[in-house]
Design brief:
The structure is a single chain. By secondary structure, the protein is an alpha+beta fold. The chain has one domain. Helices cover about 20% and strands about 35% of the residues. The strands form 4 sheets. It has a 5-stranded mixed β-sheet. A two-stranded antiparallel ribbon has the order 2-3. It has a two-stranded antiparallel ribbon with strand order 8-9.
Length: about 200
């Protein structure tokens, strides 16, 4: 069986938490740790697209997931390389055709701003091209949900233990946890990293 070739990824990582000084209710300065959220500007075939906020845990996966979710690339095999450089806070994405950036410019003419705490933007006809919903008889057993919750509680989360409140997103197959991503509470966009 032939394996499909995927894009070349730089596989960069950042510290998930950073040291900080906080002021308590009595005005005392105390050492603490905060989520190390940072901006990452995405360039698609040398065209600036968007700036995403990330902890830097899996930035290449976040970028690929964002591009797929927005339907800016149809297949991951269309992407030849994702290069993340934290010194300039940028991710350069190169496609096989080199023309995804042109398509992106056309899609950016139509934007839908979504509501909510994370206020995001959908480009082009992404909302019309969503995958179909599961069948109406699709069910998840209560025991599966309880097993997942129990498993997630056991996971070692450095960022949660050191920095406190973070949101988590878990990709699973049945009761098996396949991938975990953590985000600061004001950023609820963990899903794109899973899609990458």
């Amino acid at each position: 069986m032939l394996m499909e070739r995927g894009p070349h990824l730089t596989e960069t990582r950042c510290e998930l938490v950073v040291p900080a000084t906080v002021c308590d209710q009595d005005g005392n300065l105390l050492p603490a740790h905060m989520p190390g959220e940072r901006p990452l500007t995405v360039y698609l075939d040398k065209r600036e697209l968007v700036t995403l906020m990330t902890l830097g845990q899996y930035p290449e996966a976040l970028v690929l997931g964002y591009l797929r979710n927005q339907r800016l690339v149809e297949h991951l095999r269309d992407v030849s390389m994702v290069t993340v450089d934290w010194e300039v806070e940028a991710a350069a994405v190169s496609t096989e055709s080199g023309e995804a950036g042109l398509r992106c410019e056309a899609l950016m003419q139509k934007r839908t701003v979504t509501a909510g705490c994370g206020q995001g933007t959908q480009f082009g006809d992404a909302l019309e091209r969503l995958s179909p919903l599961p069948p109406s008889d699709f069910r998840v057993a209560r025991s599966t949900i309880f097993a997942l919750v129990a498993r997630v509680r056991q996971l070692d989360s450095v960022i949660h233990k050191r920095a406190g409140a973070v949101h988590g997103c878990v990709l699973c197959a049945g009761a098996r946890v396949c991938h975990v991503e953590h985000r600061p509470p004001q950023r609820r966009r963990s899903y794109p990293a899973k899609c990458g």
